[in-house]
């Protein structure tokens, strides 16, 4: 192959790489205020809040029963703290349970959660979907459940049409995969995991969050 041919081949490869990178969902253009961190770093619920408050990072899998319990017990308290700017809150939605349960519901639910961020209803959707978590682990989610959860979360009109399309096309599949990969790289291998300022809380503290809705306030106060 001559020099021109080599240069042409290199350019073709570079263009292909750029097209691939441009098609990935690492930098999501959410219409709301939620930020998607690059390389699957998770969704920052309130990016306008600075780094001078506790940095809370929650790792959830929508098929995880204890994740559902965490949301039912402490989810509202945590969301209120984020809305008040008392904490900066990041969610990573994992999908490792798909392998052990033999379905793809964790991945599709995580995609739906990212879709809800486009409508600026992430925390509302998370709460609504966990409230619809199947009693029997492994039953999985139908798309209709995502649509019902979106409606309860306040996604309606054109935003609901956009959400529906996002769910049906699995629009953020790449970013969902990246979140799981990043969590594994960060040695998060179970759920739920709650980190504050980069350090996982203790099992005793997590147990408190699973049982007592006031324990989160006490936990944050202990960081000050």
Estimate the strand proportion: 5-15%
E-strand count: 6
Lateral strand order in the biggest sheet: 1-2-4-3-5-6
CATH architecture: 3-Layer(aba) Sandwich
Summarize the structure.
The protein is of the alpha+beta class and 224 residues long. The protein contains ten helices and six strands; from the N terminus they run αβββαβααααααββαα.
Your description of this structure?
The chain is an alpha+beta fold. The protein has a single domain (30-221), classed as Glutaredoxin. Helix 2 packs antiparallel against helix 5, helix 5 crosses helix 6 and helix 6 (143-152) packs antiparallel against helix 7 (157-168). The chain contains ten helices and six strands; from the N terminus they run H-E-E-E-H-E-H-H-H-H-H-H-E-E-H-H. The longest helix has 21 residues, at 3-23. It has helices at residues 3-23, 65-83, 97-101, 105-118, 122-131, 143-152, 157-168, 173-185, 203-211, 215-221, and strands at 35-37, 42-44, 55-60, 88-93, 193-196, 199-200.
